[in-house]
Amino acid sequence: MAEIYLTRAGYNKLMAELEAQKSERLKIAKAIEEARLQGDISENAEYDAAKDAQAHNAVRISDLEMKLTSVRLIEDQDIPSDKVFIGAVVTLLDMDTDEKLQYMMVSPEESNYEENKISITSPIGKSLMGHGVGEDLSIKVPAGVLRYKIEKIERPS
Questions:
Q1: pTM, rounded to two decimals
Q2: From its phi and psi, is residue 102 left (phi > 0), alpha (psi between -120 and 50) or beta?
Q3: For 77-154, which CATH class?
Q4: How confident is the model over 124-145, as pLDDT tens digits?
């Protein structure tokens, strides 16, 4: 598996999810045992549901463990702060609406639009990478062309 670049917060989030999934595994095992005690499991909906949950849980745990073995933490001291790179918080001015936007550049595994975390592989993310403060960009997206000016680049501490 290829390396997965994550911020410390992204890594901690995956670790917390893994621990939650492992905890859930114990609850599912208890639900399976309780369903077994109800008698004939061939027509037991609770048993079937618990077995399905167990399978999904096992797949998710395996997926998380595999991702975590491929993680490479982004260490800010090695990344220039005058250009947009992964881990940067970028303040943009939408040149058509005069609206200010702020995004954190993250790996696809960490992207979350509601948290203003955009993937470096998204159309906007790709277009911002390597550019500096004061630069004007026209970014082609499925909905048309976005025109932004980079106003600020920060590194969260």
A1: 0.68
A2: beta
A3: alpha beta
A4: 999 999 999 999 999 998 889 9
